[in-house]
Design brief:
ABC transporter, mainly alpha, 278 residues, membrane, ABC-type transporter activity
Length: 278
């Protein structure tokens, strides 16, 4: 028995969880509303819809889809004791965590791909006069899936590192508010605080340093990576194009997102392998 076997078994259970489909349904609803809004516009813009999906629907709902799908992946079975039965089979603890990741990624990716397919149908039917840039749309979908993968990995890691449902839920909610809401959108985020400290101490700093701090969160990296999907004239927040430093280029945003996939998962596996499940 390996990670694939664990994923196949877990996939049957996670698909039945109705709570997972609530944020997915909300994301589809937002998408349809954006397309409907453009259908009433004198100058419908495909890129305006994509930007709305990323900044309003994606930033708020994609993390919720991923966290809800995965925060109980390991901790739920650990609290119920069923994980001990699973580990009595010829399967390692690493395979259990990786299997949970694969199953949750499969469900989240499938749901999002279906949502984006519905979006295309909405574009064809609600706004037939609007030009759809399929290449840029494919890049946007790929970036959003990578963003969702990062949050699924984080949720699985939190679940693997905690021993109960309540702690897993608290960790997932805490991560969402700290690294999504506070880090990126509130005036108490690290970039704002760094600016305040630098100015109070009279230290020199560059705007690129503050933008890099913003980009260190999954959401910040995702928003700045969207430059790959938008022409310069369609995306007012072109970050990398305004700085020559490598750590604000679009490709480096992908590196940050991949790091959010790999590093938390590695820490979660390390913590789960050392945990006492008795």
């Amino acid at each position: 028995m390996n990670a694939i076997s664990v994923a196949k078994r877990d996939l049957l259970d996670v698909r039945r969880a109705k709570l997972i489909w609530v944020p997915v349904a909300l994301y589809v609803l937002f998408m349809l509303l954006f397309y409907w809004g453009q259908s009433n516009s004198m100058n419908p813009s495909f890129y305006r819809i994509m930007l709305s999906l990323a900044t309003i629907g994606g930033v708020l709902l994609i993390p919720l889809v991923a966290l809800v799908a995965a925060y109980l992946s390991v901790a739920g079975e650990r609290e119920s004791g069923s994980v001990r039965y699973q580990l009595s089979l010829p399967v390692s603890r690493t395979d259990v965590v990786l299997g949970k990741l694969l199953s949750r990624v499969g469900v989240v990716s499938g749901a999002l791909l279906a949502s984006f397919a519905i979006g295309l149908v909405a574009a064809w039917t609600l706004v037939p006069e609007m030009s759809v840039e399929y290449g840029d749309y494919a890049v946007f979908v790929a970036l959003t899936l990578l963003y969702a993968l990062a949050y699924v990995s984080i949720a699985v890691a939190i679940s693997a590192a905690t021993a109960s449902r309540s702690r897993a839920m608290g960790g997932a909610i805490g991560f969402f508010f700290v690294f999504n809401i506070i880090w990126n959108f509130l005036p108490i985020g690290p970039a704002y605080m760094a600016r305040f400290v630098f100015e109070e101490l009279g230290l020199n700093y560059a705007d690129s340093h503050l933008e890099f701090i913003f980009s260190l969160s999954p959401t910040g990296a995702y928003l700045n990576a969207l430059e790959l999907a938008f022409p310069a004239e369609q995306f007012p927040g072109q970050v990398g194009s305004g700085f020559d430093v490598f750590y604000l280029q679009e490709w480096f945003m992908l590196v940050i997102l991949v790091a959010w996939v790999v590093v938390p998962l590695g820490l979660g596996i390390w913590r789960f392998r050392r945990a006492d499940l008795g």
